[in-house]
# Entry
Amino acid sequence: MGKADLHTHTNASDGDLSPEELLKKAQSKKLKTLAITDHDTIKGYLAAKGLAADFGIELISGVEITAIWNSKEVHLLAYNFDDDDPEFRNLLLNQRTARKLRMQAIVSMLNSQGLKIEYDEVLAEANMGNVGRPHAASVLIKKGYVSGVAEAFIRYLSSERLRGIQTQYAAIKEVLRVVKEAGGVISLAHPGRLYSDTEITSLINLGLDGLECIHPSHNFTAQRKYTALAKSENLLITGGSDYHGTGKSEYDPYFGIVTLGEQHIEALKRTSENRQRIVNI
# Structure
């Protein structure tokens, strides 16, 4: 039975590897199925789309979308959508603008604390793509303000530190609607890291299709807990390594190890295909 990783990142967002390099690495780890889930962009997926077959990889369309729910950021993993859907493309365009405005606000906040960095420096770290906090962390490291990514987040870039910054990310109900109308399915990313059990139940009730039960931040007990919850709620079970690149995060060694079984991929595709039939009626 083939192995799958449905949570990876490339240099189209905050990963290190190009889409082609990621495919090559996936091949070396003997993965059968891969989803590139860059933050609020499908540029990495589109670049890999025509190359995947050369590496013997089944590539599923994917993206990790940041949405707003109860004034809180929520990370949603969308899969197997029509990547040409106009409303879906427009959603991602708006998300890119929201990321830019948020990062400009973060830079202003850091400047007010005496840290001399510029937005263009952060954008350069992102290779002119979608900016995120890891790119700001890289600038802080290069300028000697912090010694590493962990320190950057603890001192300056954690969600708690940035609580006062307003964002213009899409509301979760809008994301759910647009992705589903594009024939896709949506799973809640790494639920054990970010949400209470009550919050997870509330999010499920909004219309999620799945839970990311398998993730490096979930120990065996947590995996069993979320898998049982997914089964009880008739949700898809998704999972992956959350790979960003060598040394980019504590999850990177798990690429090729934290994987998903083929039966879960087939269930995901069936759900998406059934939805696409309804959408196209």
